[in-house]
Write a structure and sequence with these properties.
Length: 321
């Protein structure tokens, strides 16, 4: 997933901090993505920049794309992060500069680790009629200092572990939830899960007390720790919880994101996660000059040009204002 803003503002994030249990609903920004898709950008936000190592969250759809091209995100670069592709409906064809070409379907994990440098594109398949509805989330995970220069890689996991009981069915996307562990590679203690709640659900989900958490409502209406959520809302829950009360009077689903509060200061600009202005500037120069990131083959269209850097140097700061 790319940030297609041609005038991106620098985002500072990272740094240790404990909030304890809280209820903080984060508002979304409507952001155009590619040629025809609009997403709800929920993280980073002015008041909350990371949840564990999760540093970027876009929610899109459900969108009727029967007579539209659907997602079309041109080749673009990344450093210092992992991208997580997660679908409830539709398909996304991922291509990258490693030579990967993988169609990602609902509730399959597409996990790309950028490390020192990678480029990729994402689009609704064109070789045949694509699915009529597109609905999902795109997320980034910041890599810790000792892993941010690692070799890039791509993983696709069609089968993921599940946790069920009490009207709840949870697919573990990354990390571990209630004893079930995803095969996806992680580099910090974190969890990502997709939870479906049946009508009449009234249950409690065990949590890691040291993790901070957020809930992204995907469909239906539910209550998370007593807070009503509707699709597209992100509820930041803080840390210090051993369990999470869940209720639903109609079928509903949400994504649970969590992790140990990220202690490092980060600097995020455009599609790069670095530690300094020099990190970002060098990555932009390398992408513009066609070095370091490789080429994405098969996408029908030009790659995405890098926007101009701001006139003043970029500076990393703490994880919250």
């Amino acid at each position: 997933m790319s940030n297609l803003d041609l005038k991106p503002t620098p985002t500072v994030c990272g740094g240790a901090g404990d909030s304890g249990p809280v209820h903080d609903v984060q508002p979304a920004r409507q952001v155009p993505l590619g040629e025809s898709t609009v997403v709800r950008r929920l993280l980073p936000h002015l008041g909350r920049r990371t949840v564990g190592a999760w540093c970027f969250v876009d929610h899109y759809g459900p969108e009727d794309i029967v007579d539209r091209p659907g997602m079309r995100v041109p080749p673009h670069p990344h450093i210092g992060l992992q991208t997580v592709s997660w679908l409830h409906a539709g398909e996304v064809l991922h291509r990258d500069s490693l030579g990967s070409a993988q169609t990602i379907r609902p509730r399959e994990l597409g996990l790309m680790t950028a490390g020192r440098a990678i480029a990729h594109s994402e689009e609704s398949p064109r070789a045949r009629a694509h699915a009529p509805v597109l609905h999902g989330a795109q997320l980034w995970v910041a890599l810790p200092a000792e892993q941010r220069h690692r070799a890039p890689s791509f993983e696709h996991h069609a089968a993921l572990p599940e946790v069920t009981g009490g009207g709840l069915s949870a697919t573990v996307i990354l990390g571990t939830l209630d004893g079930a562990t995803s095969p996806g590679t992680t580099h910090t203690p974190l969890v990502g899960a997709d939870l479906a709640l049946a009508e009449g659900t009234d249950t409690r989900l065990p949590l890691e007390e040291s993790f901070e958490y957020a809930a992204l409502a995907m469909a239906g209406a539910c209550e998370v720790d007593g807070v009503p959520l509707t699709p597209g809302a992100l509820l930041y829950l803080g840390n210090g919880r051993r369990e999470l009360p869940l209720r639903a009077t109609t079928p509903a689903s949400f994504m649970l994101l969590g992790g140990v509060p990220f202690e490092e200061r980060l600097l995020m600009w455009w599609n790069f996660v670095g530690r300094s202005h020099e990190d970002i500037a060098q990555a932009r120069t390398d992408w513009t000059n066609g070095v370091r990131f490789g080429e994405v083959h098969g996408y029908d269209g030009p790659r995405l040009p890098a926007p101009e850097l701001p006139a003043t140097p970029l500076k990393p700061r703490g994880r919250t204002p």
